[in-house]
Write a structure and sequence with these properties.
heterodimer, A: mainly alpha, 67% helix, elongated, B: 634 residues, Alpha-Beta Plaits, Beta-lactamase, five-stranded antiparallel sheet, 25 strands
């Protein structure tokens, strides 16, 4: 007969250690401690999740504020673009620079076919 | 258990009575029988009480179940809503209004969000921070301290800071950021920023009556494209339904229900800001030079109906529309009705050619007077021109000749042609408040005959400038009338979504292509002789002048106009210039034609249209008569 394993010592002799653990858990104090520990762990996990969500909430709010600011900036820039590209503004600036409108008929528009255009680009005779 | 308990309860008095009663006697068994009967009676009573108790309990239980079902099933939604209302809030998510661009992508209308500053003087005083807040706000807003103090140091609980001009102070982005930082640091107790969305028209009064504006109250579009396309531009506000924290801020940690906002669509117009500016500037100058009460210029593409410019004088600045007279907000190009005068002669003769009533070479003996319905009609110059062909009727702008052509067509057919060219009905342009014009329906035969002749040269009929431009567009476009439009494309979702382009719509074939070709050749001759438009060297111009005096009793009520297109045989644009009541000169050829010519020259250069004629002359084709235009001169 083998020597009994002292770690598996039990009133019933050598047996399943799991049975001992279950027996221990049946004791009220151990059960209470185990319960409190589990509840604490769950609470800790919950608080961790809530904190992470709160941080995400703050980050989201910050990003939304930044998005709103950029959208405002975009609208401001478009309004500015509209102002500086308006014909009235361009006209005013051109006059301020001393430019005057060309008289009517000062531009000659000619129609050139593609072959002639290519020849001119190449520096040859059309 | 309860049944046994009830039984014991019922039996208790019986047992007690049995203990206290006399001992049983054995006198022949009679006492036992009496006793048995007595006990049976008692048992029956107990069973009765038990049944009553059971029924009572069952009734109470049923009532409780019923009430529970009532609250849990019947009132479930109402109770849930009341519970939600205690800790949930609905936040509106505003949808940004779409922008409006010209055909080249230049912004014409943009919504800008700026912050305004509100303050609660009572709160500021309660924390004894008035001096600090006034100094900080003066620095951050750029206003003088005295102005800030004058507005804040007043009794009351709500103040909106105003600028030097007395209007609500709207902050630039940098100043907003500065105040926001101060608020976050707790340096401005009793102060808050409120976002204000304003509609900005960066080009000022450019195309104001086509654009319209957005009202301050409610932000709805008024007049123009802003009104017509309100639904597209405004978008759809969203909603966030969520739990809030103590400060009323939405909690992302709580379950949320949200409907995302759909931003308004961006619109791209067919208007070209450059052409529009030229039209407005030229019109303003001409109105001033001729002493006119106002005027209209329309430029449109005859092949598609796209409107390139739509200018009116007087106009208004949509950035400050409240200061403008109500009458200037309307768009007279689509809503004002006037007698077109001789520009209608082109429509009349084109109809006559299409109907087979006349040909370009048909001769008419002009005696200087045409009697219609018993009323004599005279030429504008009160002279007779003898035998003239139809081209000459246009060249000399003969009322008698045009009235005669209308008579040859006949009332019924002529009305059909008017309708085919779009007169008497809305053009369908995508602008609000369009007028269909006025076509009278006289009952008496004399009146009908007179009106037919008058309509032939553009009197006694009410049209809008856009109807005239569209009708000339039909002449330029091989007889096909196109529906005019100003919205070229719609980009959904604030420009990020699908783009829908407006497809040109051919309304109908007003006259046949040969008839349109003939009238174009005749108009080229007419323009050459009549108005000096040959001054556009190298280009063929098809145009007709018009002068109308709808009220013979008031000769100051006149309309001078020129309608035409160029190049005549491959038109790039239709151009209408109309002046209301010009004073220095009342005729279309002298009041409106100089502007028409100047704008046409600019447009031909702008569109890079090469000359289609050699030399200085306007005309190479004299019309189907084959005559040399130079010989058509009076």
């Amino acid at each position: 007969m083998d020597t009994p394993d002292p770690t598996l010592d039990s009133p019933d002799g050598p047996g399943d250690w799991r049975m001992r653990a279950l027996a221990a858990l049946r004791r009220p104090l151990a059960l209470a401690i185990f319960g409190v520990a589990m509840i604490g762990l769950i609470a800790l996990l919950y608080l961790h999740q809530v904190a992470a969500l709160a941080a995400a909430n703050d980050r989201l709010a910050t990003l939304r504020a930044e998005q709103a600011r950029l959208e405002r900036q975009d609208a401001d820039q478009r309004a500015r673009l509209g102002a500086v590209t308006s014909p009235a503004y361009v006209d005013e600036r051109a006059r301020a620079l001393g430019l005057v409108p060309a008289p009517l008929g000062s531009a000659l528009i000619v129609s050139i076919n593609q072959a002639t255009l290519s020849a001119l680009r190449d520096g040859g005779q059309p | 258990m309860s049944r046994r308990g009830s039984l014991l309860t019922a039996l208790t008095p019986l047992l007690a009575r049995a203990r206290t009663s006399s001992r049983p006697t054995w006198d022949g068994g009679r006492s036992w029988r009496e006793r048995e009967r007595s006990e049976q009676a008692t048992l029956r009573q107990a069973r009765g009480r038990q049944a009553v108790l059971f029924l009572l309990l069952a009734g109470v239980l049923a009532a409780l179940l019923g009430r529970t079902a009532y609250w849990q099933l019947g009132q479930r939604d109402a109770l849930a809503a009341r519970a939600d209302a205690q800790h949930l809030r609905a936040f509106a998510i505003p949808a940004g209004r779409g922008a409006i661009y010209d055909a080249n992508g230049r912004p014409l209308a943009v919504s800008v969000t700026q912050d305004s500053v509100i303050a609660d003087p009572d709160v500021i005083r309660s924390v004894k921070a008035m001096d600090t807040v006034v100094a900080a706000l003066a620095t951050l807003t750029g206003l003088p301290q005295a102005r800030v103090r004058a507005q804040l140091d007043v009794p009351g609980a709500y103040v909106r800071l105003r600028g030097a001009d007395g209007k609500t102070l709207l902050l630039q982005q940098a100043r907003s950021d500065g105040i926001r930082a101060a608020l976050a640091g707790g340096d401005l107790p009793g102060v808050a920023l409120i976002p204000v969305v304003t509609r900005v028209y960066p080009a000022g009064d450019l195309a104001a009556q086509t654009l319209g504006f957005v009202s301050l109250n409610g932000g709805a579009g008024q007049y123009g494209v802003e009104q017509r396309e309100q639904r597209l531009l405004a978008g759809t506000p969203g909603q966030l339904y969520t739990a809030v924290d103590a400060a009323g801020n939405p909690l992302a940690t709580a379950p949320q229900r949200s409907t995302p906002a759909v931003p308004g669509a961006d619109l791209t117009l067919t208007l070209d800001a450059t052409v529009q500016y030229w039209a407005e500037q030229g019109l303003a100058r001409t109105v001033a030079q001729t002493g006119a009460g106002g005027g209209t210029v329309i430029v449109l593409d005859p092949r598609s109906g796209a409107i390139r410019a739509l200018a009116n004088v007087p106009s208004f600045d949509p950035n400050a529309y409240a200061r403008s007279p109500l009458a200037t907000l309307q768009n007279p190009a689509v809503s004002a009705v006037y007698d077109p005068g001789s520009v209608m002669k082109a429509v009349t003769i084109a109809s006559g050619i299409d109907a087979g009533a006349v040909e370009p070479g048909t001769l008419f003996d002009d005696t200087g007077t045409l009697v219609a319905g018993g009323t004599p009609i005279h030429n504008w110059d009160l002279s007779a021109h003898g035998m003239v062909n139809m081209t000459q009727v246009l060249q000399f702008s003969l009322n008698t000749g045009a009235g005669w052509v209308a008579t040859q067509i006949g009332r019924e057919r002529f009305d059909r042609y008017l309708a085919a060219f779009g007169f008497g009905a809305k053009t369908g342009v995508d602008l609000p408040d369009e007028s269909p014009g006025i076509i009278n329906v006289p009952q008496a035969a004399d009146e009908a005959a007179l009106q037919l002749a008058e309509n032939g040269f553009g009197e006694g009929i009410g049209v809008t400038p856009l109807q005239v431009a569209a009708a000339y567009g039909a002449l330029a476009n091989g007889g096909v009338l196109m529906r005019p439009y100003v919205v070229a494309s719609v980009a959904a979702d604030g420009g990020a979504g699908a783009v829908t382009r407006t497809q040109p719509v051919a309304v109908r074939q007003a006259v046949s292509q040969p008839a349109a070709r003939s009238i174009t050749q005749m108009l080229v001759s007419s323009a050459y002789v009549e108005t000096g438009m040959y001054l556009l060297p190298g280009y063929s111009i098809a145009a007709k002048t018009g002068t109308s005096t709808p009220d013979p009793a008031d000769p100051t009520v006149t309309y001078a106009s020129v309608a035409g297109y160029a190049p005549a045989y491959d038109p790039r644009f239709v151009l209408l210039v109309k002046l209301d009541h010009p004073r220095t000169t009342i005729y279309g050829a002298t009041a409106a034609a100089p502007l028409w010519r100047a704008l046409a020259a600019q447009l031909l250069t702008y569109y890079q249209v090469p000359p289609d004629r050699t030399g200085q002359g306007n005309v190479q084709t004299a019309g189907q008569s084959g005559q040399d235009p130079n010989k058509l001169l009076p």
